[in-house]
Amino acid sequence: MNHNQKKELSKPETIEEYYASRPFLSTADVQKNAAHFNVFRIGEPNIEDISVPFGKKDYYKICIITGNSRIHYADKTFEVQEHGLLFANPQIPYNWEPISSSQQGFSCIFNEAYFNHFGRIKDYPVFKPGGFPVYELTTQELSTIKAIFEQIMNEKEGRFEFRDDAIRTHILQMIHSAIKMRPATNTIPEKVNAAGRIASLFLELLERQFPLENSSSEIQLRSASDFASQMAVHVNHLNKSVKEITNKTTSEIIMQRLLQEAKILLKHTTWPISDIAYALGFEGPTHFSGFIKRQLQLSPSQYRNT
């Protein structure tokens, strides 16, 4: 993403805004806060364009693309040489930047309400922060995923009484196929106990603070004590629970998330470095610069310009 493409990060794009920016799509079945699903072909006239602004979207998205492209996902960039598969979720900002002129494939969007009482869609590794969201597919793997998308297209156009259940089943089939292709090695089995609930709430509160809407925003929870106070638990209990579930300290997770957000803001906005420092809760630009240098061996300006 070049300098001219940088912009202020905004609130997550809603499904309503998604359709409003694509006037050729029908909004007849879009109802606020209701379950929603749609599927599109990419590469046909007046159909889904993968080139979208970097930022969060208030819905889930699964895409396959044939064509050279780059996926900017959180603080990382993945280059797809031939066939790419993306699993995007409402927690992580992203965009898909086409490089070659020819881009063909499929895209589907849905919200969490679409999967109410039909599995826990957000718990799959492909949709978790730190999971594996981008796949470079072989020709055979592309054929497998493409066939599932074709089945979804057929179901969407049909009048089968249990059409949505069939579509959900195909989406889960696609997720399972991807996980089998590249098993996730960095996900932690869920522990349904007090420690698991506390760690989950901590991670949810941490993630809720992002994205920052503008350069004058500032995160409110930055230390383990801040989170413990918000959750009404003792800080030692919070630290023990987080360590048990994630095998990382509370402070490590907070610092890793601040680093990820700092990298996003340095790369995808033109905010002054001092504004980024204060927005992320640092005492000033000097402290922020020291943090970035320790983590990346580069100054904030050097990282921004690489």
TrEMBL record:
PROSITE patterns: HTH_ARAC_FAMILY_2 (PS01124)
Every HTH araC/xylS-type domain range: 196-306
A Pfam family per the record: HTH_18
Swiss-Prot/TrEMBL keywords: DNA-binding, Transcription, Transcription regulation
Entry GO MF terms: DNA-binding transcription factor activity; sequence-specific DNA binding
Designated name of the protein: Helix-turn-helix transcriptional regulator
